């Protein structure tokens, strides 16, 4: 059954079900060697996960680790929708947006 709701309209249970379905689709695409399709499903998982993040836990002006990019930190300037806008430390400091689900606190226990 294909779900036509936007992530913003889904309940937490619906989001978790959608994430599980997308992960299964990504797994199958990876097994079949369909790398582009795998990447699309992985991005959709991150976006769906972003709707499960409490935006109050992402504070502008703070540093966060980037999930999947070990040793790289992201400075959040502001939030817009489910994206955190800012820049990676140590790089060109070009402004970019990351889905909030990709950000993990530098300090454990948050």
Question: Which key phrases capture this entry?
Answer:
globular; 2 helices; 23% strand; 110 residues; alpha+beta; 5 strands; 33% helix; 5-stranded antiparallel beta sheet
Sketch the major β-sheet: 5 strands, antiparallel
N/C terminus separation: 37 Å
Average pLDDT works out at 92
Question: What fraction strand?
Answer: 15-25%
State the helix count: 2
Report helical residue fraction.
25-40%
Strands of the biggest beta sheet: in what spatial order? 4-3-2-1-5
DSSP, total strands: 5
Indicate the low-confidence ranges by residue numbers: none
Shape: globular
- Name the structural class: alpha+beta
User: Over the alpha carbons, how many angstroms does the gyration radius reach?
Assistant: 15 Å
Question: From N to C, what is the helix and strand string?
Answer: HHEEEEE
Please describe what this structure looks like.
The chain is of the alpha+beta class. 33% of the residues lie in helices and 23% in strands. Helix 1 runs antiparallel to helix 2 (35-50).
Compact overview of the structure:
With 110 residues, the protein is an alpha+beta fold. The chain has helices at 12-31, 35-50, and strands at 63-66, 73-80, 83-88, 96-99, 103-105.
Describe how the helices and strands are arranged.
Elements: H1 12-31, H2 35-50, E1 63-66, E2 73-80, E3 83-88, E4 96-99, E5 103-105
Helix pairs in contact: 1-2
């Amino acid at each position: 059954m294909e779900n036509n709701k936007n992530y913003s309209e889904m309940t937490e249970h619906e989001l978790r079900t959608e994430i599980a379905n997308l992960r299964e689709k990504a797994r199958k695409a990876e097994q079949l060697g369909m790398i582009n399709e795998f990447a699309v499903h992985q991005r959709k998982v991150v976006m769906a996960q972003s709707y499960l993040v409490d935006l109050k836990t992402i504070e502008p002006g703070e540093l966060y680790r980037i999930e999947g990019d070990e040793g790289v930190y992201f400075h959040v300037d502001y939030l817009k929708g489910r994206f955190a806008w800012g820049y990676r430390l140590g790089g060109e400091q070009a402004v970019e947006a990351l889905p909030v689900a990709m950000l993990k606190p530098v300090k454990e226990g948050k």
